[in-house]
Design a protein that fits this description.
The complex is a heterodimer of chains A (125) and B (106). Chain A has no helices and 11 strands. Chain A is mainly β and 125 residues long. Chain A is globular and about 45 Å long. The mean pLDDT of chain A is 95. With 106 residues, chain B is mainly beta. Chain B contains no helices and 9 strands. Chain B is globular, with a radius of gyration of 13 Å. The chains are: A mainly beta (125), B mainly beta (106). Chains A and B meet through strand 5 of A and strand 3, strand 7 and strand 8 of B.
Chain lengths: 125, 106
């Protein structure tokens, strides 16, 4: 059973870059059986997909955030990361790292099977 | 971009059946996944591929998908089912979530 854990600063200043890391245990991040991604949830609001990365290295981002987002993988540490630049108060949210098992079919239709516990990031000076 | 529409809230008495809808253009041609989120917790997958249940999810949770509407049905609703529910699909390699529905057990 995969387990995911987010880590990173809980407070980021406006205009700076938000950086979070997700550590994966119980499976290999480089396996073709999984995809990885980030999802956020502003306080009191719904879920918003940020982007995903695949074993091939391909990345897909939410068009509304694409210009500010980078998702990358560090296979040596079994981690993947999120960088969101030029943050504003609107980026304040609980950030979840997540993973999907696509061993049974296409990664582009599989559900999100695994979630981290989430980490609150507040953007404030 | 693809839009999924859910009712903001659904209320149901214990023991009754709750139906939560998720509307989208020709959503019946897509695989729909449903998540349950309780306060302060991460979402949990309760139905995937329209109508399949992950291991450990009660049979009371079921799903259907046809035309422009997918539906999550919760039979014999219990107090512990009170939560927010989100539908999700893939569209052009992007994940799309519905706005969420708060299920209140009266």
């Amino acid at each position: 059973q995969l387990q995911l854990q987010e880590s990173g600063p809980g407070l980021v200043k406006p205009s700076e870059t938000l950086s979070l890391t997700c550590t994966v245990s119980g499976g290999s991040i480089s396996s073709s059986s999984y995809y990885w991604g980030w999802i956020r949830q502003p306080p009191g609001k719904g879920l918003e997909w940020i982007g995903s990365i695949y074993y091939s290295g391909s990345t897909y981002y939410n068009p509304s955030l694409k210009s500010r987002v980078t998702i990358s993988v560090d296979t040596s540490k079994n981690q993947f990361s999120l960088k969101l630049s030029s943050v504003t108060a609107a980026d304040t949210a609980v950030y979840y790292c997540a993973g999907g098992d696509c061993s049974g079919g296409s990664c582009y239709s599989s559900p999100i099977d695994y979630w981290g516990q989430g980490t609150l990031v507040t953007v404030s000076s | 971009s693809y839009v999924l529409t859910q009712p903001p809230s659904v209320s149901v008495a214990p023991g009754q059946t709750a139906r939560i809808t998720c509307g989208g253009n020709n959503i019946g041609s897509k695989s729909v996944h449903w998540y349950q989120q309780k306060p302060g917790q991460a979402p949990v997958l309760v139905v995937y591929d329209d109508s399949d249940r992950p291991s450990g999810i009660p049979e009371r949770f079921s799903g259907s998908n046809s035309g422009n509407t997918a539906t999550l049905t919760i039979s014999r609703v219990e107090a512990g089912d009170e939560a927010d529910y989100y539908c999700q699909v893939w569209d052009s390699s992007s994940v799309v979530f519905g706005g969420g529905t708060k299920l209140t057990v009266l």
